[in-house]
Amino acid sequence: MPSAVRFGVNYTPSEGWFHHWLDFDLDSVRADLDSIAALGLDHIRVFPLWPYFQPNRTLIRPRAVEQLRALVDAAGERGLDVNVDGLQGHLSSFDHLPAWTRTWHRRNLFTDPDVLQGQAAYLRTLAAALADRPNFLGMTLGNEVNQFSAGPHPDPDRASSTEIDTWLDRMLAACAQGAPGRLHLHAEYDATWYQDDMPFTPAQAARRGAVTAVHSWVFNGTAQRHGRASVPAEHHAAYLVELSKAWAEDPHRPVWLQEVGAPAPLVPAEHAAAFTEATVRNVLDCPDLWGITWWCSHDVSRRLADFPELEYGLGLLTNDRRPKDTALVLARAAAEPSRAVPATRTTALVVPADPSLRSVCAPGGAVYDAFFRLTADGARPTTVLGTHADDRDRLARRGITEVVTPEQVLPTPQGGTRS
């Protein structure tokens, strides 16, 4: 039986990076898409830059929308489905926000009524423009927009979790109004799961939108603490997938590994293929995985300045569209003719339900360390909220037969272990 897991890539244009929207060249886009399709992948995630598409709150440029439609059509001609990120937002260390939200027009991205009206109109317009395209998967609200809502961003648009609830509901509704029935979701970086004061919460990630999205990057302290070939590094993506399930109400809610990559120098280029193979193998052992979307398709050109060094070499393909060893690893996984459905994970690690305590799930935290100790012992753990740990019906729906706390797993100060 063919695998139901989707394999794709985040599309970074080989010419001009995402600034290609300013000098849109469909022939160049087609050549990029040919190189992606040749890997046997089935979808891409694309990034309109918000200031280029909506430079004024009441101006959504028709020509930019038509160029997006042309890109989606070109992808469809090559057998590629497309997810579209709307509010860009933040990409590869750069913020891309329209002038009508900054400096002299400074307004909160998550609470200002005029900004919300403009955002909703923009998302609805993009979704509606693609609603009749059979290869349009749906909208992601934006790329890691939670980084605007709290530190360490240097100028955050602060909001409460209740205000973020309202923002998410309104933006997802706008996408659904534009393109009913499609796969609309939101996606944040891992501070949602790890940072105590982040107003975007795990419950929001696991309950709002069509699927849960996780973004896995081992430069978050994982590779620094444990090394590139460690159990935590090679299972970090699987950890985030399983961590998300503690907050999900649906016991079989799909989880999308929407971003994952092999960042140098923590994962040197000569070891990137091995890291990719281990990451993919381990995350495929997670039940209810929707898909794996690698970051990213093509390297950033060295002619572009001021990117962090790691960003230049993250592509599956070089800037002149040649596949790297990492691309071949992903292509082999995508081409696997059949794959057994992962067995249910029957051991659940208890996670605090209080989001102000979520740092215990971060690198160095008790939940994090316990999860990887269990993994190293072959236990294949998942997670459950402490408030659900004694709910037999809920545990049974998930197939959980054993519940353990971090204290029962972690080494004692004397060096022994608690059973």
UniProtKB/TrEMBL annotation:
This is Glycosyl hydrolase. It comes from Streptomyces phaeofaciens. It comes from the Bacteria.
